Amino acid sequence: MQIVRNESYVNSRVRIGNWTHIASLALLVVGFILSLLPNWLGFGKEESSGAIFGAYVAMIGALLLLNFGRGFTRRFGPRFRQDQLLVAGLRGLDNRHTLYNYAAPNLPDHVLVGPTGLYIFIPKFNSGRIQFDGRRWSRGSLGGALLRNIAEGGLGNPTTEVQRAMSQLADYLKKHGSEELIRGLEAKPVIVFTNPQAQLEVRNSPIQVVQIRELRSIFRRAKPVLSPEKVDALKAVIGREIEEP
Question: Same structural domain for residues 128 and 15?
Fold first, then answer.
């Protein structure tokens, strides 16, 4: 399997996350200093109120920035990046398949193109008991879910993420591809739980849901549905924004 990653895009997002974290820490320091100023300088009631209000604003701003930056580091940071786990889970696919990671801002993060079709992977690094009844996702007990949300990030709604990714890909191919390319083309979404400690209880899912150890099995009996010419055309469109090293 060939692996393609848009390094310039990933690195720019990592920098945004890093600088946002630095800014949030700076605001926390400002808020802490403002909270101490009334005692240090012997402010009167009016000045003290202003300083305390400024401290609260700075701390709230710091928390907002921290949450914003965490979205970038969890998605693009080397410690959390899901493409590394997907590559391991797909090991063994032949070189006719290409996995595109973070190919463009307006594409899904992980797209696989090969003779067996066009795939969108939605990886989730959540652990513990995860249930889906065909309509609603849940994570077992409320207390355990809250603790895992803090450590791993929230589960969200993978079904909604699939719908958004499918729409992104369709719009991108329609904009940059030919009518012949997209005619009859149907992407295959797969929700992949990459944490080995995930315990899935999935029923009546319209979307394929697998654990990372099961990912390779999707391709074992898959038959070719795309011609080599169509595969090459898809690769040219999806990889069009990736700079050559």
Answer: no
